[in-house]
Design a protein that fits this description.
By secondary structure, the protein is mostly beta strands. Helices cover 12% and strands 37% of the residues. The strands form 12 sheets. Strands 47, 48, 49, 50, 51, 52 and 53 form a 7-stranded antiparallel β-sheet that branches. Strands 3-2-5-10-6-9 form a 6-stranded mixed β-sheet, with helices on both faces.
Length: 834
């Protein structure tokens, strides 16, 4: 690692300038002009997908741009803020160096981060709003250059643009007057010369990042910046002759590796695992960009482009090399995208079923995935099975066959053969390579075993409230989780009814969702319940599983003792999603499958006990080969939501729709000193809506990054939500959030997130496997342990302030501990795991 000081920078820059004079300088008009090129970040900062960082990429764009200036123009000076991947220089160091050297223009090169589908360019010059007008910093010119580069770079990269903005307008919105009338970004605010920061696509977009790895792609970005600077100065641009494009597989539409592209004597081979991608992946099939770039062609000529590979049909196509010298870069690039047809016979890539091939439940499909688009009729004709059985088929796409198993017997072994002399692919009509020897023909055989018949009705495995619970929320979410999927047709409007004990029914709404093979049914009361009263949850008979097994009717009783809310302030109701970053935009997010990970608005999963039209959706996928997969869902300090400040007297709350994944979640806030403080981790071991709370006055506090585990000062605000993978937890899922808020309470303090404390009784650990400890400040007279069916499973009379309950022989699930202490009964939820 090299920490560059000012004198060292000057020595290195002088060396580069002297070495640049060996090139011919055919473009004139820049004599006397000086540019400072700043490749953003240092070393491997802002890691993008596939272990390739923004810092590495933009340095190479900067070096290519510097070479173009020195080799082709009469420019006086080209300075760089850093020269190698080992250089480490701060933001202050960059702008101080630039101000000392005194260039005419400061150009900061970046790429962006966001969701996996996000990909666009963005230009940011120094500016703000005053009296309804956008004001650009002086000396001006960043806006003018940004307007040129915005169109040029977007066209050359063939991606959308978000535009060319004054930086304070972009980050704080277009208003009549900004409070701070100076540039928002450091590189615009503290530089004494004209400046611009560019974002060239997203290093968190899988398609873009695989292109970013290519050396010629980085030259393409530099060429766009170079020609834009010439246009900015009103200098005629030279003609260029370039053929470029993307080569894809006609079957899959995916980019292709190792394709030879030839125009006359000029050749180009697209990147391959052997030539490039082995640096970033151990999977030879993971990465491809299909990008080719052949320069030095005669502008205005007609050429023949030949694409060839041992694995694809050779393709020849004529191309006119366009020329428009004083046009934008994309008006001088001859784009030719082609699809090549494979000559490799198709194989079966995988055979899967919902619960594996050793226990296929009749009525659930078996999926056969092929490597190429298949001729569906011939494949279906090629299938035979060893037992007398009637099979029917459907296709989810041209690659994936679904075999219907509804007519198969239970507890039976089946062997299926796909005849390689009958089944063909769609595009070339080659027979299936069933035995995977590289040649057409040969049978593919697979086996599976059907499951036993299900004759058991659905069972409630988790519910809230539980029987005999005293709830502190005046309008609770009624939640029932079943061990299997409930047929939607069997869930009527009266599937769940809520009744005041010995009184009237409470109006409300029933909803049903399926999560990870389990049904969760909610009842949302339409009105507040009556404090200090008991209620019955009446669950109708006849809720049926997919086999037609129906439930008996059930009743769960609970009572309400309201923990009164004195004040309630919403931070975000999530009716619209604004100011929340995509998970990939935070450098703290690591170890994710980016294609599966994103946040956005949802209007289907709603908690009807609060006034809402939307929820925040977080979909995630963990790459468990990473040491510690982690997501930071961040909201910036300047976000409008953070105008609502809170302090230690408040309880921070959010409704969360859990997926039962056992991954973990926590709040993250900034206290009065701006340090990052957090609650303890919460295991997401529930399915459906639940109110998660952090009592800032009494619950544990932990520091993160610059935090110290102490809530200092006042005026706290949200930094976001954090999530992490736990060994053995689900590797993918979706969570939803509603009503992020803070409240002050009258009466009892809400329950701790991971332990329950009422009347000075502490229960731990929770969840538990072997034993559960109870500590009290007074004598514990009696403990009754009740299961979800309402049955008493254990009775203990300790007669002391401590007790130990052995749960090693309990079935896993949720239990209620009714504890009599100090002549008062209180209920505690305890989870037993295995």
């Amino acid at each position: 690692m090299t920490n560059i000081n000012f004198k060292q920078s000057l020595v290195l820059i002088v060396f580069l300038l002297l070495s640049g004079h060996i090139f011919s300088q055919s473009i004139t008009g820049l004599n006397g002009w000086k540019i400072f090129i700043d490749p953003g970040h240092s070393q491997k900062e802002n890691m993008g997908l596939y272990n390739y960082s923004e810092a590495e990429k933009v340095l190479r764009v900067a070096l290519a741009l510097q070479n173009m200036f020195l080799a082709q123009t009469d420019i006086s000076n080209v300075y760089l803020s850093r020269l190698t991947d080992s250089d480490l220089i701060s933001l202050e160091g960059r702008t101080t160096l630039a101000n000392t050297l005194g260039p005419d223009f400061y150009y900061s090169i970046h790429s962006d981060a966001g969701g996996p589908a996000s990909n666009s360019t963005l230009m940011l010059y120094g500016g703000w709003r005053s009296n309804g007008m956008t004001i650009e910093k002086t000396p001006i010119g960043g806006a003018a250059y940004g307007a040129i580069l915005n169109d040029d770079l977007s066209g050359a990269m063939r991606i959308p643009t978000r535009g060319n903005f004054a930086d304070r307008n972009f980050y704080l919105g277009v208003v009549d007057n900004h409070e701070n009338k100076w540039p928002y970004l450091h590189v615009n605010r503290t530089t004494n010369m004209t400046s611009l920061l560019s974002e060239a696509g997203f290093h968190t977009n899988p398609r873009q990042q695989q292109l970013n790895m290519n050396a010629q792609w980085k030259e393409l970005e530099a060429l766009s910046a170079f020609r834009s600077f010439l246009e900015f100065h009103g200098i005629n641009r030279p003609a260029i002759g370039v053929a470029t494009g993307i080569i894809t597989d006609e079957d899959t539409g995916l980019p292709l590796n190792g394709i030879n592209v030839k125009i006359g004597e000029k050749e180009y081979n697209t990147d391959s695992y052997e030539s490039l991608f082995n640096k970033y992946s151990t999977n030879p099939k993971e990465l491809a960009n299909g990008f080719y770039w052949i320069s030095g062609l005669n502008p205005g000529s007609d050429v023949e482009v030949v694409f060839s590979s041992p694995f694809f049909q050779t393709k020849s196509q004529n191309l006119s090399i366009i020329t428009n010298p004083n046009g934008r870069t994309h008006q001088n690039l001859s784009f030719l995208d082609v699809k090549l047809t494979s000559v490799v016979p198709a194989i079966v890539e995988s055979v899967t079923s919902e619960k594996g091939l050793s226990s296929v439940k009749p009525s659930t499909p078996v999926f056969v995935k092929f490597s190429r688009k298949m001729d569906k009729g011939t494949i279906e004709s090629a299938i035979s099975i060893n037992q007398a059985a009637s099979l029917t088929y459907s296709w989810s796409d041209d690659f994936t066959l679904a075999i219907n198993t509804s007519q198969l017997a239970f507890l039976t072994n089946y062997s299926v053969i796909i005849d390689g002399s009958i089944g063909k692919n769609l595009l070339t009509g080659q027979f299936l390579d069933g035995d995977k020897d590289g040649n057409e023909g040969g049978n593919y055989t697979f086996e599976f075993t059907t499951s036993p018949e299900d004759t058991n009705p659905p069972v409630i495995i988790d519910n809230s409230p539980v029987n005999s619970e005293v709830v502190s929320v005046i309008r609770p979410v009624i939640r029932l989780v079943f061990n299997e999927i409930i047929s939607a047709a069997s869930i009527g409007v009266d599937a769940i009814k809520l009744k005041l004990h010995d009184g009237n029914y409470i109006s409300g709404e029933v909803s049903h969702a399926v999560v990870n093979g389990k049904s969760v049914i909610h009842f949302f009361p339409a009105t507040d319940l009556v404090d200090n009263n008991s209620y019955n949850i009446e669950i109708a008979a006849g809720l049926k599983d997919e086999w037609g097994n129906g439930t008996d009717s059930q009743i769960i009783t609970f009572s309400v003792k309201e923990n009164r809310i004195e004040t309630l302030t919403n931070i975000d109701k999530f009716d619209a999603i604004t100011n929340w970053w995509q998970p990939q935009a935070s450098g703290s997010t690591v170890g994710i499958v980016t294609e599966q990970t994103s946040q956005g608005l949802n209007t289907t999963f709603l908690n009807k006990t609060v006034s809402t039209t939307g929820s925040l959706r977080l979909s995630y996928g963990w790459n468990i080969s990473h040491g510690a997969p982690y997501i930071r869902l961040y909201i910036a300090p300047a976000a409008a939501q953070n105008a609502n400040k809170f302090n230690k007297s408040h309880v921070l709350q959010v409704y969360m729709f859990g997926d039962g994944s056992n991954n973990q979640f926590r709040f993250m806030i900034r206290d009065g000193l701006g340090t990052l403080e957090t609650t303890q981790w919460v295991s997401i071991n529930w399915i459906g809506w639940k109110l998660v709370s952090w009592n800032l006055s009494s619950d544990p506090v932990f520091g993160w990054v610059n935090g110290n585990g102490i809530l200092d000062g006042t005026n706290f605000y949200m930094d976001g939500f954090h999530f992490r993978y736990v060994a053995g937890a689900n590797q993918a899922g979706t969570l939803y959030f509603e009503d992020l808020r803070f409240v002050t309470l009258l009466g009892e303090t809400p329950t701790h997130i991971n332990e329950e404390t009422k009347n000075d009784v502490v229960i731990y650990p929770n969840p538990a496997r072997e034993i559960i400890n109870l500590n009290s400040t007074s004598s514990i007279q009696e403990i009754r342990v009740i299961n979800l069916s309402g049955n008493l499973v254990k009775l203990i009379k300790p007669g002391s302030d401590k007790a130990v309950v052995n749960v090693s022989d309990f079935q896993p699930g949720l239990y209620i501990f009714n504890v009599l202490s100090d002549n008062k009964w209180n209920n505690y939820k305890v989870i037993v795991e295995r």
